[in-house]
């Protein structure tokens, strides 16, 4: 990248955002004026498969690298925002049952927020990755009106993450599990074809949103069914995991089977947003994840399909916005930084 164009030096004190993923960490810096100092991904290997000690050290490396890149003195850093995949508590303790990215026993019940705070010697504010992306989408969309607005976000990836933001703040819940929108069970009428098996989620639920609107849902549930309807499709010759990953490329080319699969995903998210409309009546509905990283015409079609599948009252239609989560892969780190900034300058 051209660092002269995409990297700035701080004009004030700052916070750092660290987005931890299964493969890479992404880092950013946000200064007190609300300016991000980098406009591109700044990544390093996350090393989560090597266990907690290596992963925390990799996060510390990401922290050091982003300060060096932006020429930010350590003395200017007031807090660090961290996000990871869930499930985890509101304070960053990984679930005692582990998670997709934290599957070794050494991760079960590990306090990743506390460990990073000890390693860096700075306050660390934690969110799961869905909440971080939701928070960034909310503040980027509403700007100065963020504190007076509410939103719900669905983040489609390997699973389905999400977040609920009320008055500019992430709704965490008593155990930190609020906003786990992927595991909301939805009515399947109008989503599934006649005779299509009820999708099962890895969590054990039948017919929750993640069982349909996720890469895992495509692999385990949707694609095996639709290949019986399109037996001559080129993907029928591929192993299901590879075929599931390749499906979005076919969707971008308006392939009928791919559009049928993604159409069901859009309907499922529409059912989820319909439920959200009756719980929180948000000002905005945001959609993020892999579909946002697709070709512009495809992601607009998907967003339009979600909007059409969301059953709102006329009064709600008049005031609600549907939008894509901005800045794609950077949303997690940026949302983590926004959370850190809010922690030292509370609204």
TrEMBL record:
This is ROK family protein. Belongs to the ROK (NagC/XylR) family. It holds the Pfam family ROK. It comes from Actinoplanes sichuanensis.
């Amino acid at each position: 990248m051209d660092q002269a164009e995409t990297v700035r030096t701080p004009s004030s004190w700052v916070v750092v955002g660290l987005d931890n993923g299964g493969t890479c960490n992404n880092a950013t810096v946000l200064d007190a004026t609300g300016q991000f100092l980098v406009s591109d991904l700044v990544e390093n290997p996350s090393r989560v498969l090597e266990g907690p000690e290596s992963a925390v050290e990799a996060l510390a490396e990401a922290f050091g690298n982003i300060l060096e890149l932006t020429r930010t003195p350590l003395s200017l850093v007031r807090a660090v925002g961290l996000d990871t995949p869930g499930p985890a508590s509101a304070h960053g303790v990984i679930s005692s049952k582990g998670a997709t990215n934290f599957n070794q026993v050494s991760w079960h019940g590990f306090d990743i927020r506390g460990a990073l705070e000890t390693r860096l010697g700075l306050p660390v504010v934690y969110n799961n990755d869905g909440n971080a992306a939701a928070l960034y989408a909310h503040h980027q969309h509403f700007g100065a009106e963020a504190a007076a607005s509410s939103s719900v976000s669905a983040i489609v990836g390997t699973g389905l993450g999400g977040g609920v933001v009320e008055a500019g703040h992430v709704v965490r819940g008593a155990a930190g599990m609020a906003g786990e929108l992927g595991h909301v069970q939805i009515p399947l009428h109008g989503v599934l074809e006649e005779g299509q098996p009820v999708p099962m989620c890895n969590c054990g639920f039948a017919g929750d949103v993640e069982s349909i609107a996720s890469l895992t849902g495509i692999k385990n549930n949707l694609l095996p069914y639709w290949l019986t309807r399109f037996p001559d499709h080129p993907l029928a010759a591929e192993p299901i995991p590879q075929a599931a990953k390749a499906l979005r490329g076919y969707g971008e080319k308006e392939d009928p089977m791919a559009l049928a699969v993604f159409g069901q995903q859009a309907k499922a998210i529409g059912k989820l947003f319909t439920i959200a409309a009756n719980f929180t009546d948000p000002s905005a509905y945001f959609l993020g994840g892999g579909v946002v990283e697709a070709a512009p015409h495809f992601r607009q079609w998907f967003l339009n399909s979600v909007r059409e599948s969301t059953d709102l009252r006329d009064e709600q239609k008049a005031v609600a916005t549907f939008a894509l989560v901005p800045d794609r892969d950077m949303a997690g780190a940026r949302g983590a930084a926004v959370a850190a900034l809010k922690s030292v300058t509370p609204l």
